[in-house]
Amino acid sequence: MVDAVITWVNGNDPAHQAEMERYRSDATQPEWAGGALDATRFNERGELWYCVNLIRKNATWIDEIFIVTDDQRPLWLTNEIQSRLNITIIDHSAIFQGYENHLPTFNSLSIETLLHKIPRLGARYLYFNDDFFLVNRSKESDYFDGDRPIIRGAWRRSSEFKRTIMQSPLRKVFRYFYPDYYSYGYMKRRAESKLLPEYRSRFFLMAHAPFPVTKSVANQALSSDVLIESNVQYRFRSDKQFNPAALMAHVGFSERQSLAGPHDWEYIDAGGDSIKTIVKRLKRCGASSTIKSLCVQSLDLAKPDALENINRFLESRL
Predict the structure, then answer these.
(1) Rounded distance, CA 103 to CA 106, Å?
(2) pLDDT tens-digit readout, 172-222
(3) In sequence order, what DSSP letters do the residues of 14-31 get, joined into one string?
(4) What's CA 37's distance to the chain center, in Å?
(5) Dist. CA 224–CA 230, nearest whole Å
(6) What SS3 state is found at 226?
């Protein structure tokens, strides 16, 4: 069996906003990443409801759904719905045992570092951000070849020169001439490259798509308390952190326990893409059953016409 794990926060909750404000002047502030406090990281626009219901419609092979959150509960999640959809709410305190001094946290990378510690979580699971949507029917074999995760992304070549440029004011010019190096819909590299020197020149650029995980690989990649502590210590996202998903993927590739998957996903930046681009990508998802998932980032920043098109499309997939 395969479980699903979804990370979610209701950033509109006044209690959550007040708690975050208490730690805004945390001593680690100089180490925060750009945009670490942007409201769009926390704002909630009903994405979770679509995420859960599309899992249940298009991934009938998923067993239990774990929603990881911070002492919150979606308003629509009644006891009857929770039982019918086989959902379990997991509080951050359940996975931060031994690292409680780093709570509360407002950092998805810190949370993702400990997801494999969810109580009763199966040996294989599919990890979702709450803005990932399964828009067409999927099979277990789309994401797992037996016990080997099939991971979405693309192999890229890198160099010290490129890494330096991408952190400089010249990065926009660089992206113009080398669009494949920083493709839309892919997660940029972080500190995991320092942990895996063999991937300094060739690495797997992670896609914004459901991420399949096996506990065996997760435990292998995150076996050190020192390593975990180094990543979960930041309450807000930091450029010094590694991406746990990318680290697990590369460890899996090194041990021949993971496979590279197809480009069967689509991506929309609801606050930045033009309405023409958004409509085009929605049509692609609807026209081809080979597109399994869609990521819609920053739905809270979408203009009215974009929001209408996206919501209409998600409703149509249900």
Answers:
(1) 9
(2) 665 555 555 445 677 766 666 677 777 777 889 899 999 999 999 999 999
(3) HHHHHHHHHTTT-TTGGG
(4) 17
(5) 10
(6) helix
Closest by CA position to 95, among listed 74, 73, 119: 119
Closest listed residue to residue 248, CA positions, set 140, 118, 149, 159: 149
- Label residue 154 exposed, middle or buried (CB < 10 Å: 0-12, 13-18, 19+): middle
pTM of the model: 0.89
Distance between first and last Cα of the chain: 24
pLDDT, tens only, 138-149: 999 999 999 999
Containing 237, the helix (H) or strand (E) segment is none
Closest by Cα among 81, 191, 61 to 122: 61
Q: Where do the domains of the chain lie, and which CATH numbers do they carry? A: 2-317 (3.90.550)
Q: 124-129 and 87-91 as β-strands: parallel, antiparallel, unpaired?
A: unpaired
Sheet holding 124-129, edge to edge: 87-91, 62-69, 2-7, 124-129, 211-214
- Which pairing describes strands 2-7 and 124-129: parallel, antiparallel, or unpaired? parallel
